[in-house]
Amino acid sequence: MTNNDILRRVRYALDLPDQQAIALFSLGDVTIDEAQFLALLAKEEDANYHSCSNEQILGFLDGLILKNRGPRQGGPAPRAEQAEPINNQVFKKLRVALELKEEDILGLLSLAGFEVRKPELTSLFRKPGHKHYQACGDQFLRNFLQGLALQRRHGAE
User: Which of 22, 71, 137, 153 reaches 20 to 30 Å from 129, CA-CA?
Assistant: First the structure.
């Protein structure tokens, strides 16, 4: 998945209007205007398409965390290790922002028709280098975002 796909899917799942989404970037210390935001939402074949950088998507998600949970006690959140794949970072930030527990995530994945066992899930939240660490694949993240959209937009339980 591209960062643009992730941005579009999160925005859709959480039903975020443009101005609110732009405000989340600002909260995450990323400055973009409406035209830049629309370019991030555009499809790759569109003339005004612009690729969403890792810094932009992570800043957007940091803004979502700040909006939903407030500032972290004891200072800013530690930055993720550079070696960690972007999908793992995105997944971790969404878990924190939406205050999801393991059971909640397993339920969202189940809504999308993607059955996962708890050990498979916890391996995604380990630090790179841990013997049970696993990279979050595109299919996993795509199904998580699909389940989130089904729950939040369509009221599926």
Answer: 71
